[in-house]
From TrEMBL:
GO MF: ATP binding
PANTHER family per the UniProt record, alphabetical: ABC TRANSPORTER RELATED, IMPORT ATP-BINDING PROTEIN
UniProt entry keywords in alphabetical sequence: ATP-binding, Nucleotide-binding, Transport
SUPFAM superfamilies registered for this protein in UniProt: P-loop containing nucleoside triphosphate hydrolases
Protein name as it appears in the record: ABC transporter ATP-binding protein
Domain ABC transporter: 14-251
Organism name: Aquipuribacter hungaricus
Pfam families, per database record: ABC_tran
InterPro entries: AAA+_ATPase (IPR003593), ABC_transporter-like_ATP-bd (IPR003439), ABC_transpr_LolD-like (IPR015854), MacB-like_ATP-bd (IPR017911), P-loop_NTPase (IPR027417)
Amino acid sequence: MSPDSGRHLRDAVATARGLTKVYGRGEAAVHALAGVDIDFARGEFTAIMGPSGSGKSTLMHCMAALDTPTSGQVVVDGVDVSTLGDKALTRLRRDRIGFVFQSFNLVPTLSAAENITLPMDIAGRKVDKDWYDTVVGILGLGPRLSHRPNELSGGQQQRVASARALVGRPAIVFADEPTGNLDSRSSAEVLGFLRRSVDEFGQSIVMVTHEPSAAAYADRVVFMADGSFVDEMRRPTAESVLDRMKTMGDL
Ligand SMILES: Nc1ncnc2c1ncn2[C@@H]1O[C@H](COP(=O)(O)OP(=O)(O)OP(=O)(O)O)[C@@H](O)[C@H]1O
């Protein structure tokens, strides 16, 4: 546990306790998560880093209720995820969690505007027009709203995906390598937006990344190795993260 986990515990937006995930059985069993205890603070931007296969995506998918842990507890926005049935899980994912994926995951037949409001439209929730305009404005998507994804650059598509994640005002946004397919300029735009959403609107964000320059946008970087949470760093810089990764044998 981290020294300041007491503070996190009080205002944590998501927590894991004793989280394990085992794939396969017997000799072929892979312990992707080997008992993780972690808190993600509300209103904070956290990056998850670690060597390939260390369990980053598995942790995020279990916390985001996209995957079921083998054992342990996940609480998101005060809700114990393991107690929920399928319908309640769908509602939790839809209403309280925003997602940004490496591959954008936009619906190709819908315009940018329709993609942004799709989760809320499906949920029958009213879109807050002022907030929608704010998000679209910050992301510079105004002139592109009628375009389909194949008429947009990768960076623009990821900005649409970011707007979709934020427009429903979720309790937490989980981003899985959101800049993995982007050039450095588009990466900076998307990461700058995520940062701004934390600073100006109190959004909570957890992002898996391999890139020290991306992790440097976060308030806190947590490091995983072999399915466990092994270290953390506050106020990271690209250099300090790179130095830490070198000691983990990631390069
Ligand atoms: N569906 C699955 N079936 C079997 N093993 C899996 C499955 N998904 C993940 N694993 C294994 O679990 C471990 C953790 O995988 P995970 O994808 O969480 O790591 P990661 O840190 O996100 O890796 P990367 O940085 O390469 O994306 C790895 O050993 C992986 O091979």
